[in-house]
Amino acid sequence: MQFNHYGGEAALLAADLVNAYAREPGPNRAPGTKQQSDTGQELHTEQETDTGQGPDAEQRPDPGRQTGPQQQTGPEQRTGPSDPSALLAARGIVDHALTPAQQRDVRAWAHRLAPCFGPQDLAERCARLNALLDEASSRPRIALHDGTPHFHYSAPGSDAAAHVRALTAAGLASIVCHADARRLGRCARTPCGRVFVDTSRAGRRAYCSVRCANNDAVARHRATRRPG
Ligand SMILES: [Zn+2]
Ligand SMILES: [Zn+2]
């Protein structure tokens, strides 16, 4: 699949934002899927994040942060820093700090992006993305600044949060139209729920990482040996 800045990178940013601000455990659950219930021990492995929490990130106690075993996922399920600026900069999207209002906008948008990942009916996914494209209503244009014509998904000088909305909606849409909708995945390991853009050649990834694939294999193996 072709992975240019405004398709691939934008889709990867969408996944980053979901993982930082709107992560829900489990794949889009099929009816009858069993929850990993046991001791909650499983959940501890999910505390670390790989979302740009650098040494310079301010470590401030967050009153909203849940401690202890996580039982449920509120709408503010958050694993990233409250300011998404670093995440955006890491993808080369927005290179200046966001205002608090823009930060809120971007975090809220992550919750809209989240349901677009994971196994689902194609028509359903397209309807979701069309709603996002509608909401992002940007003014795409052809840019020539680097000598090669390419799309810019919002006009110069547009609001940074609006730019992120336009870019991520278009990025996900571009995966669906130019690659395969099933490449917008959600980790099959129930307590994980990290989303990902499957850039593998075969496009068959079910897990966010090798670690999750291995852990899930071990868990399934144990489950088959459990008495009762
Ligand atoms: Zn450009
Ligand atoms: Zn995972």
From TrEMBL:
Ranges of compositional bias, category Low complexity: 64-81
InterPro entries xref list: ABATE, ABATE_dom_sf, Znf_CGNR
Gene3D superfamilies listed in its UniProt record: Jann2411-like domain
Domain called Zinc finger CGNR: residue spans: 183-223
Positions in coiled-coil regions: none
Region (Disordered): 22-85
One protein family per Pfam: zf-CGNR
Cross-referenced SUPFAM superfamilies: Jann2411-like
Protein name: Zinc finger CGNR domain-containing protein
Taxonomic source organism: Streptomyces longispororuber
Lineage, opening ranks: Bacteria, Bacillati, Actinomycetota, Actinomycetes, Kitasatosporales
